[in-house]
Amino acid sequence: MTADPNVDADSAPRRGRPKEAGLAERRRRQIVESAYVVFAERGYEATGISDLAAHAGVGQGTVYRYFASKREILDHVFDFSVERLFEAVDPETLASTPTSLAELVETIQLAANRAFALIEREPEFLRLILVEASAIDQELKDRVLGLEQLAANFLVKSLRRGIKSGFVRSDVDPQVFAHMILMLILPGLLQELRGEGSPENRERYIGAVVHIMMRGLCAPMTVSV
Amino acid sequence: MTADPNVDADSAPRRGRPKEAGLAERRRRQIVESAYVVFAERGYEATGISDLAAHAGVGQGTVYRYFASKREILDHVFDFSVERLFEAVDPETLASTPTSLAELVETIQLAANRAFALIEREPEFLRLILVEASAIDQELKDRVLGLEQLAANFLVKSLRRGIKSGFVRSDVDPQVFAHMILMLILPGLLQELRGEGSPENRERYIGAVVHIMMRGLCAPMTVSV
Amino acid sequence: MTADPNVDADSAPRRGRPKEAGLAERRRRQIVESAYVVFAERGYEATGISDLAAHAGVGQGTVYRYFASKREILDHVFDFSVERLFEAVDPETLASTPTSLAELVETIQLAANRAFALIEREPEFLRLILVEASAIDQELKDRVLGLEQLAANFLVKSLRRGIKSGFVRSDVDPQVFAHMILMLILPGLLQELRGEGSPENRERYIGAVVHIMMRGLCAPMTVSV
Amino acid sequence: MTADPNVDADSAPRRGRPKEAGLAERRRRQIVESAYVVFAERGYEATGISDLAAHAGVGQGTVYRYFASKREILDHVFDFSVERLFEAVDPETLASTPTSLAELVETIQLAANRAFALIEREPEFLRLILVEASAIDQELKDRVLGLEQLAANFLVKSLRRGIKSGFVRSDVDPQVFAHMILMLILPGLLQELRGEGSPENRERYIGAVVHIMMRGLCAPMTVSV
DNA sequence: AATGAATGAGCTTTCATTCAT
DNA sequence: CATGAATGAAAGCTCATTCAT
């Protein structure tokens, strides 16, 4: 076995089919994306591995080459969804510290608009995150709630800064309000789930959220600016 | 619902075998109540008909004498849940037409407190309605959303009256605000789902909802009463 | 109608199909006996639950109503086999304390004959116990070996008594010889496995075993010849 | 391609690509040896081709280039095992025609010791031959039994010679006794399977076998005692 | 009317085998 | 030649539903 008669002078003994780097990652992606669609479409429980495989255009066995179980796929689908949400909202580009209530509201408005844009493009996204994932088990439910918590934490920081800067009332509880602000966008989400989503409606809702945040419900004379 | 032994419009006294009128209805009730408990406890998919039958103290076959399928039972469980929610909130006793923002807010607060009281007594209720039911199929999802719509309609009427009476700003869109007000209680619900629910927390949230509704977030000087 | 048609006066409220006592045990037996046959015929691994169910004349689901897993069925099949072996050999009727080597040998001969009679009737029995069971896992292998140990223990006692009585050489190690005596019947068993079993052959072998034991175990003075 | 790439008996100096004649055979050997190890370790059924290939350091596909099926590999593993047993026992060096019972017994003892030495070195060997192989199908079972037959034939010849020479009783049935002598070593094997094997135990057993054989086989006059 | 034994379709998962590279 | 990615048949097992009693 001195001079290997079999291959190449160069050090790497290239035997067999070359391993095509990145294939594994591509396949995983392909399967997760298919799962994202079919889970959203028919629900996690109602989707069989065979459906999933068929949609991905691979055999059932191939699915198990890349994922240990159906449940694990759901995990990755959730990650994938979160990833997409982050890409869509792109928090980096939001993080300018607001110096007035108007600015703060504007930032929130921007984030909401971006999220809605994603949902408009892919309505199943919402169902997957909000409805499917929550129903599987405690772990995934925790992850959904954790996502909301994450967003809330951003807002908490902004509100605290607002209070320190004086443009947010000091008797506002940042923790509490952060969550509530997030909830204010839920009616819009529900509309989407209902399939009644439309740009005009979205406008109305976002406008109302701004209103409520800036003014509450109190009548004009009471406020008197 | 007084002394009617026989149901139905005809009052002909059924001799021979009174057939234990209402027995069927009692059985259905018994099964639905059991299903309510076990579905909430273990989830719809994870619950087998045998679990359900065992909990109800009847045979599996008996379940199918009263319901055509597992899915149909869920329908009835949902109805039953809604029924309980209505009993708890008891909208009849809320419907006094408010004549001031404070009164309106107080009414909402009362309704919210009643709903929370139910959830505190039976936390699984929330899970069933919000999480389990939504994940089954479109029809049930629609029903969940319909429930929200129902509550919103109440609020819409109140807001319209408020606008007419002048204690609600006229630029408030009743439809939109109604939904949003409902959403404001969601953070509290999420806390319950997370198992972090506590009376103090609930107080904080409800207080904040009142605040936001009455004042918005604007700083005190801006408001100037 | 005074007597309630529904519930009856006697204490036991007999509702539904009567539970047919002993059915469960009968079904278990039926399935185990089928398994005994098909496992022996095709081997444990090669037998599917569907084969087993088909042979038993029941649905697959029914199998799982009575056994938790395929493996558990094998356990019971093993028990069943041991049970049959015991019935066939009927050790109770063997246990007369022998007072001479001839008597001891006769007893052993009788036991061997009975075992062979079973195997002749049901050759698959042997395969199941000796070959199939051993190959599944450590636990079953231990049980097979334990069975041999059990038989050996009987012999050890007899040999000890024989030594004390003087009709077995005192330099015989009871533990060791007990196992060996058992092994002496193995060539006969192997013949059966080979399908070459015949009464004449069995005679030859048992005769030879007697020969070897009489010569090997006899107390020194007795041998003389 | 002028140069036959395929090896074969012809000795024409293969220019260009000698094709590493015997490479195929080496590969086969490598795979079989790996299979020997992993089959013995985890069992035939429990071993996947991937395990096997990994242990052999080749791809799964390569395995199928050299063997048509998993089953065929087992065949070769069995051959390999027999081969090892023969190497260990080395019958050539045993075949000196014994001229006395003591010599015969000594020869058998030597063979047994060699076989035990192998088993002590590689306990899995026993499991493979005795337990795994037997359970697969009739063909392999036959081969296991054939192995015993082979050893028995050796003994038959020796016994016949012994009878002719007069140092073995003439009423000994060579066929029958040959098998029995082989069986006498089984308790020792079982101990190994049980994991209770130890040199002392082995001594005891072999001693007892010698004892029983000397007494059982010896010609009448010799015994006297 | 009530029962629970029986069923079988369908589930997730495994793995011997094939084949493009 | 060698490879390991891909495959799909088939496994064990579950459970909503049916039905004899």
From TrEMBL, chains A, B, C, D:
UniProt keyword Transmembrane, yes or no: no
MF terms (GO), sorted A to Z: DNA-binding transcription factor activity; transcription cis-regulatory region binding
Origin superkingdom: Bacteria
Region of interest (Disordered), residue spans: 1-24
DNA-binding region listed in the record: 48-67
UniProt key word Transcription regulation: yes
Domain HTH tetR-type: 25-85
UniProt keyword terms in alphabetical order: DNA-binding, Transcription, Transcription regulation
Stored InterPro entries: Homeodomain-like_sf, HTH-type_TetR-like_transc_reg, HTH_TetR, Tet_transcr_reg_TetR-rel_C_sf
Name of the molecule in the record: TetR/AcrR family transcriptional regulator
Organism name: Antrihabitans stalactiti
